[in-house]
Write a structure and sequence with these properties.
Radius of gyration: 31 Å
Organism: Ectobacillus ponti
Pfam families: Arm-DNA-bind_4 (PF14657), Phage_int_SAM_3 (PF14659), Phage_integrase (PF00589)
Order of helices and strands: EEEHHHHHHHHEEEEEHHHHHH
Distance between the termini: 98 Å
InterPro entries: AP2-like_int_N, CB, DNA_brk_join_enz, Integrase-like_cat_sf, Integrase_catalytic, Integrase_recombinase_N, Integrase_SAM-like_N, Tyrosine_recombinase_XerCD
Family: Belongs to the 'phage' integrase family.
Protein name: Site-specific integrase
Number of strands: 8
Helix content: 40-55%
Shape: elongated
CATH architecture of the largest domain: Orthogonal Bundle
Length: 382
């Protein structure tokens, strides 16, 4: 591969031309023209750099592709290879946070300062942890653009995301849980609330639970699938640890047996109109429950119970917190939640560990020294 420098008549700039071999189909000689500098010496430097790029395979053709256009293509390619719920998250992040801010910038002109400006703008709308997710998606988009030879380097990797604060965990105490269960007992979704707070299941796991995965004799349920965010399709749990068996409380087992009778009666009444998906939590016609409708119903239940608002997902945090406060080993809590390892459980629920440490020290003090007063508490002189 070689090249030469030329200058057009009356032109201010030099140009350099590189021979890139012959077309394999036609056999014709192929050349590429590049704009150089105003001096021959500077243009020679540019020619040498371009030859090195071509030889090393780092050269990319100039194109007008924008970030928004390529992000849309990236989403199309991703749709068939990821879960529906994950795809919905990717699409919403691209459409809400990437395309509106940097979508019109050409891929080859995207610079680190554009990414920093994006972070600054998003900080006015969303929390740092969400910005980190947007950054991760944008980084994956640009990585693919590099693979396809559209850009030479991924500038997203040159910029750090804003430091994310550890999210605050919201949960209810045992009295608040009792209140919610008492006020929602006649609700169609009472069994969903009970399952979440007594097993730690996620919303998709609750809405995807089938009767075939519930062993009413042994009092154990197996979490095998989840209802996707589109509320129409089911998928396996994301991880091996997510596929787990959970021992049921006696009250949960009793409520499940009662609920199964209720579902059987509905199925009988609906007749041919019933669409049996074998779901524990379903509509009156047996169909999967829409995620949005379920969240709306949950908010109304919390309002009716006059309780501090928490998300339905926070019943999972409530389950874990109540267990840990009862002295249940974190490894058992981790297994019930389907965490990949116990460290995730410890890091997530570290808010209650100081209190548990103090209680453990009290108990050990009483056991070894038969004292009912802790050392750092004031003791009477008499």
């Amino acid at each position: 591969m070689k090249g030469h420098i030329t200058k057009k008549k009356r032109g201010e700039y030099y140009y350099f031309v590189i021979d890139i071999g012959r077309d394999p189909e036609t056999g014709k000689r192929r050349q590429r023209w590049f704009k150089g500098a105003t001096t021959k010496k500077e243009t020679q430097v540019l020619l040498t750099q371009k030859l090195m790029e071509l030889q090393e395979g780092t050269y990319v053709e100039k194109n007008q592709m924008t970030v928004g256009a390529f992000a849309s293509q990236w989403l199309v390619g991703k749709k068939s290879s990821i879960r529906d719920g994950t795809y919905s998250v990717y699409r919403s992040y691209v459409n809400l946070y990437i395309t509106p801010y940097i979508g019109d910038i050409k891929m080859q002109e995207l610079a680190p300062q554009h990414i920093q400006q994006l972070h600054t703008a998003l900080l006015e709308r969303i929390v740092p942890s969400t910005i980190a997710k947007v950054h991760k998606i944008l980084r994956a988009i640009m990585d693919e653009a590099m693979t396809f030879g559209i850009i030479r380097k991924n500038v997203v990797r040159l910029v750090q995301t804003p430091k994310a604060q550890k999210p605050k965990i919201s949960y209810w105490n045992e009295e608040q849980v009792r209140t919610l269960l008492a006020t929602s007992q006649k609700s169609r979704f009472y069994i969903a609330y009970l399952l979440a707070v007594t097993t730690g299941m996620r919303v998709g796991e609750v809405l995807g639970l089938r009767w075939q995965d519930v062993d009413l004799e042994r009092g154990v349920l197996s979490i095998m699938q989840t209802l996707s965010q589109n509320s129409t399709t089911f998928s396996e749990t994301k991880t091996e640890s997510g596929r787990r068996s959970v021992t049921l409380l006696n009250e949960t087992l009793r409520a499940l047996k009662e609920h199964r009778i209720f579902i059987a009666k509905e199925k009988l009444r609906a007749g041919d109109a019933y669409r049996d998906h074998d779901l524990v939590v379903c509509t009156a016609l047996g169909k999967p429950v829409n995620h949005t409708n379920f969240r709306d119903r949950w908010k109304k239940e919390v309002l009716k119970a006059d309780l501090p608002h928490i998300r339905f997902h926070d019943l999972r945090h409530t389950h874990a917190t109540l267990l840990l406060k009862q002295g249940v080993h974190p490894k058992i809590v981790s297994e019930r939640l389907g965490h990949a390892n116990v460290n995730i459980t410890l890091n997530t629920y570290s808010h209650i560990l100081p209190g548990l440490q103090e209680e453990a020290a009290r108990n050990l003090n009483d056991l070894l020294f038969h004292q009912t007063t802790f050392p750092n508490e004031k003791q009477s002189k008499f």
